[in-house]
Specification:
Blueprint (H helix, E strand, L loop, with lengths): L3 H28 L5 H31 L3 H12 L10 H17 L3 H14 L13 H22 L3 H14 L4 H13 L3 H10 L1
Length: 209
């Protein structure tokens, strides 16, 4: 495990890296219009790579801020990553989903659960792969239903992070009451029951998997 001092040190190094990346981005943006065609193409490629690297650093800063018990900066850095024009590219889906996860956790830490719920629902519906619950073959209504199911699981996981096992179990059992075949809810409620040492109930759930 990484202690608070390590998280704080990581944030310092990441902030320095972010400054250097953004300085290079600004330099390229300032000179790109004066380039020859060949250099313009090369600068465009470098610019795209730097923007992707910027997203990576911002996501890591959001994570380090959470570890350093600074949810406000975690939200700030996660939103910066989510606001990037490249964030919806297929190859960056992992960064988008991580940024969203860190943002939701941080918002819940500062008591903004309603805002977290709204943000999660919006991004989950838009995401191509968030939790792998929404496939391209489903209708618009099915996508909305599955996104809400994913949101419920995410809310339960956030409650587990906060050691609110009772709240997590209530969310998951309500979801299973409405969607009894939803696998992610079964696995997560199984985990909660084991954490609560309710082994008989856990075995009952396990038989249904």
């Amino acid at each position: 495990p990484i202690d608070k001092v390590d998280y704080a040190s990581a944030r310092i190094y990441l902030c320095k890296a972010l400054y250097l990346i953004r300085s290079k981005i600004d330099y390229i943006k300032g000179s790109i219009s004066n380039d020859s065609k060949e250099k313009w193409d090369n600068d465009q490629q470098v610019h795209q790579l730097l923007l992707e690297l910027e997203i990576s650093v911002l996501v890591k800063l959001a994570f380090a801020s959470l570890g350093d018990n600074d949810p406000f900066n975690a939200v700030y850095h996660a939103f910066e990553a989510l606001s990037s024009p490249l964030i919806d590219r297929i190859q960056l889906e992992q960064y988008r989903d991580l940024a969203l996860s860190y943002c939701l956790e941080a918002l819940c830490m500062i008591g903004q659960v309603g805002r977290a719920r709204d943000i999660a629902e919006r991004y989950q519906i838009q995401s191509h792969s968030f939790y792998d619950f929404v496939s391209s073959s489903t209708s618009g209504e099915d996508q909305k239903k599955e996104a809400k199911m994913a949101l419920a699981v995410n809310n339960a996981v956030t409650l587990v992070f906060q050691d609110n096992l009772e709240g997590a179990q209530m969310v998951l059992e309500d979801l299973l009451h409405r969607s009894p075949d939803f696998g992610p809810a079964k696995w997560n409620v199984l985990y909660v029951l084991v954490r609560k040492q309710k082994l008989d109930s856990a075995f009952n759930v396990l038989r249904l998997l």
